Amino acid sequence: MENSNLTSVTEFILLGLSSQPELQIYLFLLFLMIYLMILLGNLLIVLLILRDLRLHTPMYFFLTNLSSIEVCYTSCVFPQMLAHFLAERKSISYSCCLIQVYTSLSFGIAVCYILSVMAYDRYVAIRDPLRYSVTMSWGICGRLAAGSWLGGFMFSTGFTVATFQLSFCHNNAVNHFLCEMPALLHLSCTDTSQAELVMHVLCIFTLLSPITFIILSYAHIIIAVLRIRSAQGRRKAFSTCSSHLIVVTLFFGTLMSLYLKPKSLSSPEYNKIVSVFYLAFTPVLNPLIYSLRNKEVKMALKKLLGKSEQP
Questions:
Q1: Phi, then psi, of 11 in degrees rounded to 5
Q2: Which of 129, 176, 283, 294 could form a disulfide bond with 183, CB atoms 3.0-4.6 angstroms apart?
């Protein structure tokens, strides 16, 4: 009898950010502008680092990876979201929903890992600067970056399988603007306790482990900086970490409030607000944070603009 009440869902209806038709065009223009800013800002960071030989260092190599992942991450969601703002029927097929969950989680987890690798890079640079070039050789940097990308695709498989093993009844309306695991857990008409358990266990490896590693790295960084005798040296050491620390706080803070919160304590509206923050505003802010607070990036930008102005 229980199985007879379940239907084979072939598509989902995404209710979006707002149900008011008159707001759709304004939301389309707003998020189109945000998406273009994400693409322009992050691709500009990649271009500057590739063009300027002074930026060919491990720190900027990892920043290139971070910006590339951010572009892929947002591109999993924004094109479909923008199309739905202008569509009367905001549907997404079951298979496309599955792909969106898998790819967005893959790149999101990869961001977590690359941010932890960047913390380790700063730790090595400050704690043992004389052996920095040996410890962070290009071979090691390449393996760390590749491991971050691979880890994202590997762990997202577990999240995706746990989500799409759930059964969905006749109600296929997802109160969200994208296919996301917490939103689909709310939609399922069967027991989600096992899926929630899988989600929380995997979050240990994809959220808690990276943030714990980052905290430990910064604890050692602070100890190393306090041992520097000159005040100017301490300020310079802290300035190399401040941009990364701001990005870490913004990104991990929003993700942990979404994925580590019990289903009973979360709401669809809260989930949408948090998702907008880490999908839209954090990728927009990252290039600004790294460019406005980084003299080398600003110098590379001036050099690029100076060349472009020459006949």
A1: -155, 160
A2: 176
